[in-house]
């Protein structure tokens, strides 16, 4: 079918670790495909390891910039992973609801990870990991304000419960969500360890985010490309820039 360009530009908001740097695109070939089909599409330059609050402030500034550049009154946001929490914060807590027509979240941990609650209870683990991650983020990801300790804490189920209470949906914004699961470890060997770790406490997951955590608004399951295969957290954002096990990520975003 023929796709009509959307009324408002599309802002892509990425999650943890990802960021457009040199040859790495946070959304693989998705932005290019949407642009090639006449959708005004932009990837937000938020930090890969920033806190929800800092990244939300960056995202809000970027939305204002794009609205001014395109001469429009609103944007649509498609957010992957933690980017969905930041977009919700922008809409509700930074009072940007009048400027957002819709929010589509993909593999966003709206209810957090129970697995991370365990790490939060043993705070020394996070205090040990965080400085190393921050150093990496500054050097290799050009983050301005990396805060790995906040990131790991804010993705816990306990934190997300408080976050949800403080961040109700805004009137006039359409919310929808997508989730996927890895059926087996071979769906994405990169996520071998996390997939199995999350299976233990959080149940079915995409290697990074449990399925029980993804629904927000109208919820959809991402259909696998091939029966018996699953879709990982990296695959649902086209990280490899190719069809994986018959699943075409840019095609999903076009739909």
Task: Offer a quick outline of the entry.
The chain is of the alpha/beta class and 255 residues long. 37% of the residues lie in helices and 12% in strands.
Can you walk me through this structure?
The protein has 255 residues and is an alpha/beta fold. Helices cover 37% and strands 12% of the residues. It has helices spanning 30-36, 52-70, 83-92, 114-121, 123-140, 148-154, 157-166, 192-201, 249-254, and strands at 10-13, 41-43, 75-80, 100-106, 174-179, 218-221. The protein has a six-stranded parallel beta sheet, with helices on both faces. Strand 1 (10-13), helix 1 (30-36) and strand 2 form a beta-alpha-beta unit. The radius of gyration is 17 Å and the shape is globular. The relative contact order is 0.16.
- In total, how many beta strands? 6
Q: Calculate the terminal CA-CA distance, rounded to whole Å.
A: 10 Å
Order of strands in the sheet with most strands: 2-1-3-4-5-6
Report the biggest beta sheet as strand number plus sense, adding barrel if it closes.
6 strands, parallel
Mean pLDDT: 86
Assign a percent range to the helix content: 25-40%
Secondary structure elements and their pairing?
Elements: E1 10-13, H1 30-36, E2 41-43, H2 52-70, E3 75-80, H3 83-92, E4 100-106, H4 114-121, H5 123-140, H6 148-154, H7 157-166, E5 174-179, H8 192-201, E6 218-221, H9 249-254
Parallel strand pairs: 1-2, 1-3, 3-4, 4-5, 5-6
Helix pairs in contact: 2-3, 5-6
